[in-house]
């Protein structure tokens, strides 16, 4: 959003979808921590400050890790003299952090369905002799994002054969990955077909079970462990140095304006 001079202007009416589009366009598919100078330049250009301050950010080696540490004093030290421009850029940085965090948390790591082996080590199909959904019910759906594990179950309203026509009740059990304490994997063999692998994900909410095709067990376990480690890091992250944009409060803004007024008075 820009004014006639090309400088960025904070538009309080800008909707969330437009803000998300700006961040997505600038990011080149990267999370904020992985942004380099090029992504910062893209972002500055999209919010209307590229031509005016792009070189300032480049000369001071501002990347995705550094941009979240900018505060009013550091922004002024970089050469952003205008109070209005500093307020606008820092407000955009706060938006940038919020949007990027939301996108990272919701990014899908794994999605799949419950594997349901048949009786007699897969010699017969699952649910034999009533092998259709009205009798067997629907398989659970597993979704793992960077922050959460969800198990979506569609349970028959009445647990009797041929009672699926009465409808299903959908339940969603969700576990925060930062709360996961342990992940166990067990697998077996089968006479025919693919044997099952069972993941047991332990947390303070109790165990969660995922039944998968055997050859997917290790892969999914590794993905969940990696996502869990990153979720723990994100949950406990403390940024040292300058205050992050989401810590810029009214007091710091007022202080910045008072300093600017004093400097103008001396001049």
Automatic annotation (TrEMBL):
<dbReference type="InterPro" id="IPR001660">
    <property type="entry name" value="SAM"/>
</dbReference>
<protein>
    <recommendedName>
        <fullName>SAM domain-containing protein</fullName>
    </recommendedName>
</protein>
<dbReference type="InterPro" id="IPR013761">
    <property type="entry name" value="SAM/pointed_sf"/>
</dbReference>
<feature type="domain" description="SAM">
    <location>
        <begin position="35"/>
        <end position="99"/>
    </location>
</feature>
<dbReference type="Pfam" id="PF07647">
    <property type="entry name" value="SAM_2"/>
</dbReference>
């Amino acid at each position: 959003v820009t004014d006639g001079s090309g400088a960025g202007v904070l538009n309080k009416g800008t909707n969330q979808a437009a803000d998300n589009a700006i961040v997505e366009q600038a990011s080149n598919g990267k999370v904020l921590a992985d942004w380099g100078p090029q992504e910062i330049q893209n972002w500055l250009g999209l919010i209307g400050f590229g031509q005016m301050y792009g070189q300032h950010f480049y000369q001071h080696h501002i990347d995705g890790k550094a941009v979240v540490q900018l505060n009013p004093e550091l922004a002024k030290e970089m050469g952003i003299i205008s109070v209005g421009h500093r307020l606008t850029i820092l407000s955009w940085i706060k938006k940038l952090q919020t949007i990027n965090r939301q996108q990272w948390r919701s990014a899908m790591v794994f999605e799949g369905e419950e594997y349901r082996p048949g009786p007699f080590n897969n010699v017969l199909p699952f649910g034999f002799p009533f092998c259709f959904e009205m009798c067997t019910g629907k398989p659970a759906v597993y979704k793992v994002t960077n922050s959460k594990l969800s198990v979506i179950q569609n349970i028959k309203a009445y647990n009797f054969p041929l009672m699926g026509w009465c409808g299903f009740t959908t339940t969603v059990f969700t576990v925060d990955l930062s709360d996961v304490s342990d992940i166990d994997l067990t697998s077996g063999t089968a006479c025919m077909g693919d044997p099952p692998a069972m993941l047991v994900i332990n947390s303070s909410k109790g165990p969660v079970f995922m039944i998968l095709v055997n050859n997917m067990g290790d892969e999914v376990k590794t993905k969940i462990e990696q996502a869990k480690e990153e979720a723990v890091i994100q949950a406990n992250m403390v940024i040292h140095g300058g205050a992050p944009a989401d810590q810029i409060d009214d007091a710091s803004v007022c202080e910045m304006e008072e300093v600017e007024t004093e400097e103008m008075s001396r001049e």
